[in-house]
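Forwarding these from the shared drive since the link keeps breaking.
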Amino acid sequence: MEFDVFFSISQTPDAAGECPDESTMLHNYLEQLAVADELGYGVAWLAQAHLSTEVQKRNKQPVVPHWKGEVGLCTDFFQLAMLSMERTSKIEVGSAVMSILANGGPIAVAERIGNFCSLQSVRGDSRRLHVGFSAGRFQFMASPYGIVPRDAVEEAAWPALRGQIFWEAAEIMLRLVRGDTICSDDIRPTVLTRGNFRSDEDWSSVQSAYGDDTAEIPIDRRYVFEHIKSIPQEWDRSKISLVLGSHEPALQEFVNTFLPVQVFNLSITQPEVIDATHERMAQAYQGEWQRNMMPRTVMVFLNEEEGLTAGEQSAAAQQESKEALSAYWSALEGTLDPAKVAKASDNAVIGNAEQIAAQIRERFHPEDRLMLWFDFFKHDSARVCRDLTAFMDKVAPLVNGGSA
């Protein structure tokens, strides 16, 4: 089993109420990254966010009205990735995940990818860049870039239409990364049908806004441009690994008509969905599909602190998980739902090294690649570093058939 590490760099109060300043947050990240690099983690996945979560609470319809601080401080993945590679020697870097609807859109992202890989070549760094991309979770981050309804039909069709805009953006980005010369007329048109909506009522409201009960409703292109080609052009495309942040089967297949695109999945995804995704990607992927091409996010509450018995470590880990998950749900929804905390705990790995190793071996396939999340609502950087170390020194050998 392969082990990556996920860094949220989330500037929000932890369970103890601590919320470091921006400089401390970034220094903590670099400290933890250096430890992960030395220990042999495969990829450092960086969460990316845009615009102030705190300020969006003033908006008419805030998406996370109770969140304190900022969801994440990585607003430019490529700059932080370059700094991260300059500070390390082995670990690769990835985005988990980058919205291609925000921060300039798909054309800007395509050029940044090419520019980054060109600079990496000049630097003599042969490591791959892992580009995880999605539509983005929060609407307020994309709205300033024009990703808003333009008329009554689009208003009625939102958010189903937002997903279709992502299809359009993904094709533009992938074709430019591939090196194509394209114009907007070359891109798949957006046509809404009943299949895009969850219910007959939702579809009927869109038809009503359109003024016709037709089975298909065409939507004007979101991105309109004459022929373009991104530069730089002469860079090694084997140095990027593209990963789609979407569970939509048809989209997973669609993006692979342009370039090899892997897929993310969460630890909470049901086993039958995981298996179906692997079966589908074995057919759709451009190349030979391998199980480790679908990284799976896992929250880790590990306690191997000195001076504690195995039982005390286990109890402490359970308490730490409850505090962190309670803080998360309170921040996300404004109230504490014990049922959601319990469900999230079921999908995390919690305990001392032996317990976590047993949980991983029970829940995951031996060829899986896990994206381990140690800094979840935790700002004690020294503790995160100890957990990173304990996992590789004690958990990983047990998972992969050795002894701690």
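-- next protein --
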Amino acid sequence: MARPRARDLGIRVGHGQPGPLNAITDVAGVRVGHATLVSGDGPLVVGQGPVRTGVTVIVPHEGDVWREPLFAGTFTLNGNGELTGLEWLRESGFLGGAIGLTNTHSVGVVHDALIAEATRDAGPQTEFWALPVVGETWDGQLSDINGFHVRSEHVAAALAAASNGPVEEGNVGGGTGMICHEFKGGIGTASRLLPAEAGGWTVGALVQANYGDRDQLRVDGVPVGEAIPIDEVSSPWTTVRSPLGAGSSRSGAEGGSIIVVLATNAPLLPHQCARLARRAAIGLARVGGYGGHGSGDIFLAFATGNRDLSRASGESGDPRSVASAEFVVDAAINPLLLASVEAVEEAIVNALVAAQTMVGRDGITAHALPHDRLVEVMDRYGRGPSGNSGAAAGV
């Protein structure tokens, strides 16, 4: 059964119009798949569990993603995290494959598994190579992160499950064991459909949200975190919360991370994709993320509006030195920038709304953001169902 989303509760984030699914899959050709691993309860036994982790994959278009690259760009707000392949992406401006999201200590296996899938598809092409993009956030507060439970078959399962339909959110895939603003977090997605006079383009966002202090949480500008403090709904970080991050750059609420992937069907050049990626930081800030010292806040944007770029990237082997591409003129890019901000903002809120309470290792519990209290607080500030009479009708 699909979990509720912000708009199902009558909460509208921002002012833009979402696409039909209000998901990154509103960008034609984009597919998302998850493999979710949940097993065991009780005390942590490294190598056995409890396990609360998984893999999410984003397939950027319907063609051969390993041999037909797309223009892309990236931005890092704070770098205590990993998104592999970014050096070549920055250098070349191309995204050349599926994107994987998982936990911090499983980046290597997901990276290797994606290469294995790519080379298997390539057949006997011995000169084929790949630099996959794989992102991570740390789920070790709830899961046996040092047990290395994610394996290559889980990556294959996530790829096989990839669909262009509605996207599961919350405790799924790479987001299974994640915590956001000291509530249960995880995967979230949203989209914005620009009006025809602004190009009619679609922008979609998918986040793996695992960051944030409770008192910083804002929903559509409302101080929800202050209104639902940890003495009302306890934090999974209660035993390690401290202003200094409990002696570790990745311990405590301050040391979480977020990976954001933005997609658009607009024809953008790599530097324009990077401009969209930078705007993800504003969407994050609107919800209360500030890129703390121990946080890995890394964002990527890709554009499907130019296709058949194999010759431009040299993948085709064509010796001709000139290729053509279309692009949105910079004077018309503002609607895409705003759409990126709002899609990221709503995707994070959707991750929080969809997530369910999870008991992890050693009985540590990440509580879901309580829907009744969220609606009550939003209504108090005139931003809930009572003040957004049309919001509940949205996607």
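The CA atoms of residues 169 and 294 lie 25 Å apart. The chain has a mean pLDDT of 92.

- D.
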